[in-house]
Amino acid sequence: MSELSQTEMIARYLQGELDAKDLEQFNARLATDDAFKREVELQRTIIKNITRAGRHALRSQLKQYHQQIIHETEATSSQDISGEATVRGRSFKNRSRPATRKRALLMAACVVIALTAIGLGYYAYLSPERIFNDEFKPYAIRTTRGSSAPADIVSLYRDHDYNHYLSAYQAREVKSLQEIFLAGNVYLIKADAARAIQCFRQVMIENEKRAAEDQRYYEDSEYFLALAYLQNNEPDKAEILFRKIMAAPQHPYNHEVGNGLLWKISVVRFKLGVND
Amino acid sequence: MTVSATDEGLIGALKNGDNEALKYVYKTYWPMVSRFVRCNSGSMEDAEELYQESIIALYEKLRTEDFHLTCSIKTYIYAICRNKWLYQLKGRKTIIDIEEYDAISIEPHDDTHELPEDKEIVEAIGSMGDPCHTLLIGFYYQQLSLDTLADKLKYASASVARQQKFRCVERLKKLFLHRRYRYTNE
User: Fold this and answer.
1) Where does the sequence pass through the membrane (chain B) (predicted)?
2) How is domain B5-89 classified at the architecture level of CATH?
3) What digits encode the pLDDT tens for the residues A89-109?
4) Which of A54, A61, A163 sits opposite B97 (nearest CB)?
């Protein structure tokens, strides 16, 4: 039997493709020929490890896709910079006396290209949803705050059991402001911006009917409503609320809103064509 | 739960080793998994690791004979990621779902992580060039048919691909035995 046909025979055996007669002969040889037995074991081990090698290859392929995603979203300027450096290095290498002014201009051009690439990359990266993802942290319940909601439903939220929170919330006929506000947060977590907006607006409207000293969750809702507008791709509405919060130093969320956030919102408004 | 026509097309393409389909799936569901992990105390690196493991699990599961996807690819990927992440958290925290989650049964796939890895053989396979690398991984890991492989490698027929496959296994055995001989004499 040639080496190749032996390899083929073993492969057919390992894949269960031998017919009864060949299998009988194969097993008989396996029982008596130790070298053959080792050969079969080696081939079995090799085939098992091809699976492992296949998985390694697939993982490398996925890592490449991942890098592509990162490059596409962030458009890093590293390639531009290294590309420019190569051109620059080559051009200087060929000159015995480099022209200082030209070098300075070239360097300045490189810096401008790099900054432009970074700027363009950031411009491409920014979106209302990304700003939302950067800014949003689910509301953390403060235990000292007055609440009319029964403890069980609030504890569901506190324990991050959001699905059960929503079920309990939806089943409740009369909902407290705290429950509505927390439901708004859960909808934000679940990326259901439209429902979140409804909740926060309802809290604010209810508050407007109350006396000033009995205001509950009004300012919280104002801030989270702005975030909900971002998630809902309405940066213009979000900006109005954020500007209002920023202009009020006593607002509990005043420190959360800075010029950087407003600038990013202006950029996405421009991108979306909702600029004034 | 039903599988859409788009998903059926994608599943077929994934089974046939179509890299464009794999890239499409990877890019489409990455934002969902990234957001899920970050909402559940994980970092971007954790999300990448988890997502790639889950895609590999899906890829291998699609190749098992008795497996039929009964939900959308998105739902299945979400469920795998959720299960794997829940296992990593080991009950330290309740999961925050970002998608509708109906518990679907995901049997642990035949994970050769449990097999003893023979590093030398894996290295020997990795060091093989084409066509052997494509042929062996295509046949044994991706479970592509010999017809598909013949087509991919521009062979005249499936039987040519079959003969070439045996030659590759033979070459691999020699390569491995040669390495082992070299290491034992060093």
Assistant:
1) none
2) Orthogonal Bundle (1.10)
3) 333 333 444 456 677 788 888
4) A163
